[in-house]
Amino acid sequence: MNSLEPESSTFRPRHLSPSSASTFRQCPRRWRLRYIDKLPDPKGEPAVLGTFVHEILEELLSLEAKDRSIDAAREIARQLWIRILDDEDFIALGFSESEVKAFMWKAWRLVERYFVLEDPAEVEVVRAEQKLSVEIGGVPFFGIVDLTERVSSGLRVVDYKTGKAPRSRYLDDKLSQVWLYAAALAEEDFDVSEVRLMYLTSGSIDRPLDSMAVASAVEGHRQTWDRLCQAIDTDNFSYKTGPLCNWCPYLDHCPEGAAEAERRYGPRD
Ligand code: SF4
């Protein structure tokens, strides 16, 4: 690992997104290897699948409400599929022919599940894939909101999830992302009244706006930012080993993580 240059001790990331904050909380060393040393962090299959499904839904919701049919989604998927075959993250997965087919069906089943969960023709889109770059709680924040829609109570912010719904003890952590979006949208004069995590595999988790939860998410984000700045200033990025080390792309740069992965899952090939 390179040392931070003395003059870089005032270095600050341009912004802190929920995913970057989550990486830092999970393991500060992993954050450093990714965001300072800029070592490649290739997307795994779940992330590539998630991006593909998000793109299908984004294009679907950009159509006139009356045109958002399953046939339209199928046509969008067909067109995006041609593109994904050339996508470097997809190619890096190194799939066999049968794995490519399985991936395609997995993606399509998630789109079909979306149609079970809601009728896109009834979604009143205010913004889709909205990039937010604002300051919240004194922290430069960046996030991309999947959907802000008009609902009877006002505005609902929606985050689509293609992975499994979290166990109840991890739910607050997942919700903190949409609370942060609500805080960031307020900075852009969008007053959110509800938040929704839509797990395509299992259903939606809805909450009315809870200003205490928003304040707590903003405070948590600020604390992560403060710890991150301190780690940068002291060039002290501790490691946190755990079950996820086995899937960390930086095992070759992290002897402690490699030992943890071997202890849990046996020697690597
Ligand atoms: S292998 Fe584990 S401890 Fe090492 S950087 Fe990755 S997540 Fe952190």
Report on the structure:
- With about 270 residues, the protein is an alpha+beta fold.
- It has a domain at about 45-120.
- About 50% of the residues lie in helices and about 15% in strands.
- Strand 1 (about 125-135) and strand 2 (about 140-150) form a beta hairpin.
- The protein binds iron/sulfur cluster.
Layout of secondary structure:
Blueprint: H1 18-26, H2 28-35, H3 45-61, H4 70-84, H5 88-92, H6 97-117, E1 124-136, E2 139-151, E3 154-161, H7 168-187, E4 194-199, E5 203-208, H8 211-234, H9 255-265
Parallel strand pairs: 3-4
Antiparallel strand pairs: 1-2, 2-3, 4-5
Bound molecules: iron/sulfur cluster.
Iron/sulfur cluster (SF4) is lined by residues 27, 29-30, 239-241, 244-245, 248, 250-251, 254, 256-257.
Task: Give a quick summary of the entry.
The chain has 269 residues and is α+β, with helices and mostly antiparallel strands. 48% of the residues lie in helices and 17% in strands. The protein has a five-stranded mixed sheet with strand order 1-2-3-4-5, sandwiched between helices.
